[in-house]
Amino acid sequence: MYGPASDVSCDRRSLVDARAGEEAIRRGLSKRLEQLADERERRERAAAAEDEAFSAEFLFAARKVFMMIDGATAKLENGRYKGDHRLSRDEWENALPMIRRAGATWADSIALREATAEDFDVIDRNHGGFIDLQEFCEWVEHAEKRANDGRGN
Predict the structure, then answer these.
(1) What angle do CA 147, 152, 153 make, to 5 degrees?
(2) pLDDT tens digits, 9-42
(3) Crossing angle (nearest 10°) for helices 4-72 and 133-150
(4) Helix H segments across the chain?
(5) What's the average model confidence in pLDDT over 129-133?
(6) Which position has the higher pLDDT, 81 or 89?
(7) In whole angstroms, how large is the CA radius of gyration of the chain?
(8) Model confidence, pTM
(9) pLDDT at residue 153 greater than cutoff 50
(10) Are the C-beta atoms of residues 86 and 70 closer than 8 Å to each other?
(11) Alpha-carbon distance 107 to 141, whole Å?
């Protein structure tokens, strides 16, 4: 059968086949988008967990360095050495070799490895003339995040 009637039936069949194909593509794309969203969510959760673990371990090391500096100038009270929980400019500058050594070894940190006398003014954000533990930890953490961003991590 040739002629206009055969062209119409052929076109209808093609149209039905095209619609069925489009629907299959939509279902496949929808499924793939769900998979991609699930993968992204898993990656984000894993990255957040990794950041949290890193931060806890990292901040523990930063606190230890701070306490070492503060403890190096601590006074003996009631049989125990007690620091004043803040670092003066002199304490900072005298401790720089120890800070750099810690940053290069057990307290792996770019901020600590490259610490300078000038960093005192950067760390002392409230300009009170002393560095407290929070200022110190924020400075170290900010330097690490900046270094990681520079490496594309």
Answers:
(1) 75
(2) 556 677 667 788 888 888 888 888 888 888 888 8
(3) 140
(4) 4-72, 89-104, 110-113, 119-123, 133-150
(5) 95
(6) 89
(7) 31
(8) 0.60
(9) no
(10) yes
(11) 12
Instruction: Return the closest-CA partner of residue 107 out of 66, 51, 71, 61.
Output: 61
Cβ neighbours, 10 Å, residue 55: 14
What does each C-alpha distance from 40 to 33, 46, 48, 54, 117 come to in angstroms?
Answer: 10, 10, 12, 21, 43
Sign of CA dihedral 26, 32, 38, 41: negative
Residues 6+ apart with CB under 8 A from 64: 107
d(CA 4, CA 10): 10
Q: Give 147's contacts (C-beta < 8 A, 6+ positions apart).
A: 110
Model confidence at 104, pLDDT cuts 50, 70, 90, reads very high
Residue 68 clears pLDDT 50, i.e. is over it: yes
Cβ contacts of residue 100 below 8 Å, gap of 6+?
Answer: 112, 113, 114, 115
The kind and range of the H/E element at 88 are: strand 86-88
Dist CA 111 CA 147 (whole Å): 9
